[in-house]
Design a protein that fits this description.
elongated, alpha+beta
Length: 174
């Protein structure tokens, strides 16, 4: 087992300890050492249940180009059974686009930022993947939230037709 896997294993035990400690205090992805991993997963094709041709970030950019500026969906972090990703299991990730389409020297761009948020409610040590709708809190621990927030820049070349459609749809001046 690598040092990284050992740290994840100890972190998983720490997560259980936090649950059993009954404070109910939320933890962040940074506190769990997962902020960078989750940000990378969002932008990596084949992660979070996406097929090998898609990433969550790429799919959201496509949704933005269809006019949607936000999303909120459930995903499974998965991973090696002793890793922190596995211990967290299923999460809700949402994103909101702040920006616009612009024309520069005859070329068209989608420019702005995507503000991502992650939320997991850790309440059932037996079902980290949320396979059942009920909690099985046989340990008597105190459920708590795991949260994360980050911003990704967006600077994508788009077609003139996409530019014109989004300008009209978002009703922003030329």
């Amino acid at each position: 087992m690598s040092d990284r896997d050992l740290m994840s294993h100890l972190g998983s035990i720490g997560l259980l300890g936090h649950f059993l400690g009954q404070s109910g205090e939320a933890l962040t992805l940074s506190q769990l050492g997962l902020q960078d991993d989750v940000q990378k997963m969002v932008k990596t094709k084949g992660e979070l249940g996406k097929d090998v041709q898609h990433s969550l970030h790429g799919d959201f950019l496509n949704q933005i180009l269809q006019g949607s500026k936000s999303f909120h969906n459930g995903y499974k972090l998965g991973g090696f059974p002793l890793s922190m990703r596995w211990a967290i299991g299923g999460v809700k990730i949402s994103g909101e686009f702040f920006g616009d389409v612009v024309e520069q020297r005859g070329r068209y761009y989608l420019i702005g930022t995507v503000h991502y948020s992650l939320l997991d409610h850790f309440s059932d040590v037996w079902d980290t993947l949320n396979l059942t709708p009920d909690d099985h809190n046989n340990f008597g621990g105190e459920p708590f939230n795991i949260t994360g927030n980050w911003v990704e820049p967006v600077n994508e070349s788009i077609s003139k037709a996409q530019y014109e459609r989004l300008k009209a749809q978002w009703k922003t001046p030329y």
